């Protein structure tokens, strides 16, 4: 399935992601990582750490609703993937990001912006493994 | 105050993700499909986010402390170990299969789409499974070398 090339829209969205990341460091002094926020809501190391993460999570979920209110349309979510593949992928992502202590937001943006060696290595690794996986799934297995 | 700030920050992140295309598996998978229906848009997401964060972090981290907390909490680990690299490789495999990453999927829950809830449910199961494995592994390591953990 083809998707339209949207450089300006994507860069604008990326700039907002960056703004949120900087504001979280400015106010609470924390890394904006989706993995850390989700894990911290479920399995907090201290109870006081749960509430702010829950507030961020609620804010995130409100994002598409605000887009709907402003534009009259929900953002596009096209899922060209079967339910078993979604579940399998989701489980593997959960295991991977927990061992890696981060994902696209925590390592790919926060860590890379801090020039962290671990985050640069993590980001290079998952970008390559995602690309290889997509190649195998689409062009070798033909799913 | 902390909660209001956190909610608004989450909202900005959620709007950014929604606009950027990161919440859309079709777009994400096409970004990685160089030999097929390639859509390079997502490199602009990474670019936009990194430019803003790179400059913003340098300004913010010059301050002695964040506005609402006593200190900045930054990761201190520097070692490239098997957990980091193996975990990242696994994450990529899952991302390539499903097309959602955690930061893309969490805001996408707000669209109410059942597929997103299915992905996030499986994601949570994976997080719990890995936490359990890590706890077992740590317990074994501390039995083998008392006091080291």
TrEMBL record, chain A:
GO terms for cellular component: plasma membrane. The chain crosses the membrane at residues 15-42, 54-75, 81-100, 120-141. It is found in: Cell inner membrane. The keyword Protein biosynthesis does not apply. Keywords: Cell inner membrane, Cell membrane, Membrane, Transmembrane, Transmembrane helix, Transport. It is a multi-pass membrane protein. The keyword Lipid biosynthesis does not apply. Belongs to the TsuA/YedE (TC 9.B.102) family. This is YeeE/YedE family protein.
From TrEMBL, chain B:
InterPro entries: DUF6691. It comes from the Bacteria. Keywords: Membrane, Transmembrane, Transmembrane helix. The chain crosses the membrane at residues 41-61, 82-105, 117-136. Pfam families: DUF6691. This is YeeE/YedE family protein.
């Amino acid at each position: 399935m083809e998707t339209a090339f949207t450089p300006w829209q994507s860069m604008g969205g990326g700039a907002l992601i960056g703004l949120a990341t900087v504001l979280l460091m400015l106010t609470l002094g924390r890394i904006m990582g989706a993995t850390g926020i989700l894990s911290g809501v479920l399995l907090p190391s201290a109870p006081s750490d749960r509430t702010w993460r829950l507030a961020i999570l609620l804010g995130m979920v409100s994002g598409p609703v605000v887009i709907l209110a402003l534009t009259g349309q929900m953002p596009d979510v096209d899922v060209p993937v079967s339910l078993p593949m979604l579940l399998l992928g989701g489980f593997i992502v959960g295991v991977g990001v927990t061992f890696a202590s981060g994902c696209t937001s925590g390592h790919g943006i926060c860590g890379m912006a801090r020039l962290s060696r671990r985050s640069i290595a993590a980001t290079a690794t998952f970008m390559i493994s995602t690309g290889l996986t997509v190649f195998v799934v689409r062009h070798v297995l033909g799913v | 105050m902390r909660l209001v700030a956190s909610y608004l920050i989450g909202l900005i992140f959620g709007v950014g993700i929604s606009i950027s295309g990161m919440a859309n598996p079709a777009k994400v998978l096409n970004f990685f499909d160089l030999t097929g229906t390639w859509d390079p848009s997502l490199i602009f997401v990474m670019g936009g986010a990194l430019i803003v964060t790179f400059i913003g972090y340098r300004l913010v981290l010059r301050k002695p402390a964040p506005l609402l907390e006593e200190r900045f909490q930054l990761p201190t680990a520097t070692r490239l170990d098997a957990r980091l690299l193996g975990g990242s490789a696994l994450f990529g495999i899952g991302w390539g299969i499903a097309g959602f990453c955690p930061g893309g999927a969490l805001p996408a829950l707000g669209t109410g789409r059942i597929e997103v809830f299915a992905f996030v449910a499986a994601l949570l199961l994976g997080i719990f499974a890995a936490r359990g494995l890590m706890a077992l592994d740590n317990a074994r390591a501390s039995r083998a070398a008392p006091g080291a953990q």
